[in-house]
Amino acid sequence: MSLSYHHRPATEKPLHPAPAEEVQPCTCTQCGTDEFLVPDNLQPSFLPTGARGWEVTYWCSKCDGFYGHLTAGLPASWRAGTT
Ligand SMILES: [Zn+2]
Questions:
Q1: Which of 15, 16, 56, 81 is the most buried (most CB within 10 A)?
Q2: Distance from the CA of 51 to the center of ligand 1, in angstroms?
C-alpha cells in the first residue's frame, strides 16, 4: 500500500523544513500504543527546529488507522529494518 500525499522535491536533501507539519511520536492515537503499527514509508527528513528526524507514514494493523507526520525518532522495531 502506498499513499503519498506529501510532495517531495527530486533531490535527496530537503530544500527547506516544513514548519507547518506537526512533530509527533509514532503511535496510534486511537489504540494509544505503537504495538500494532506497520511502517509504510520512512524518509529521513528534518524537523522544523532543524534537527534530524523522519517523515513517516504508517498504519495500525489493529484499527486500520493511517498516519503521516514528522517524528524525531522511530520505534525500535522499525529501525532494525531501515538499513
Ligand atoms: Zn490503532
A1: 56
A2: 28
The sign of the CA dihedral 49, 68, 16, 10 is positive
Amino acid at 56: V
Ligand 1 centroid – CA 63 distance (Å): 4
The C-alpha cell at 61 is 494493523
In this structure, what C-alpha cell is assigned to residue 30?
486511537
Rounded to the nearest whole angstrom, what is the distance from the C-alpha of residue 48 to the centroid of ligand 1?
27
pTM over 0.85: no
Dist. CA 16 → ligand 1 center (Å) = 31
Residue 63 main-chain phi, psi, to 5 deg: -115, 0
72, 23 Cβ separation under 8 angstroms: yes
Distance (Å, whole) CA 15 – CA 65:
30
